[in-house]
What we know:
The chain is mainly α. 60% of the residues lie in helices and 3% in strands. The chain has 7 helices and 2 strands, in the order βαααβαααα. It has a two-stranded antiparallel sheet with strand order 1-2. The N and C termini lie far apart (44 Å). The mean pLDDT is 81.
Amino acid sequence: MSNKNLTKVSNVDKFLTRLRQEVGVKTDTELAEKLGYSSTGTLSNWKKRGAVDLNRIQERCENISLDYLTGGENDKYEKAFNQLEDRTNDEGTPYNARDLLLEALVSEAEKIQNDLQDLTEKIRKLRDLDLEG
């Protein structure tokens, strides 16, 4: 990995914690997979260097707020609110803040529901293994 692709961040651990939360993974192994790496070695190098590959993250992760990830205290939905004038619904009516917040919350709820389904499937597989053993 070349240093030229890396961008310094003030707190790589906090950055990676927020990134894991945003993409819905729990471990560095899962995050490395999501970013297209075969191991966590690259993430370890980022931690050592105090820098991350923002281009890779933007390419592999949709709708990620880099301001939020880099330690900005802005709400992760702020970007949507800043674009109120530019967005319209299917009928051509501009979205209001309530609509955008609702859209963001529904998206978040869907992600949680998918995570719950994944966990339920893993529990079922564990139970099946226990019954076999």
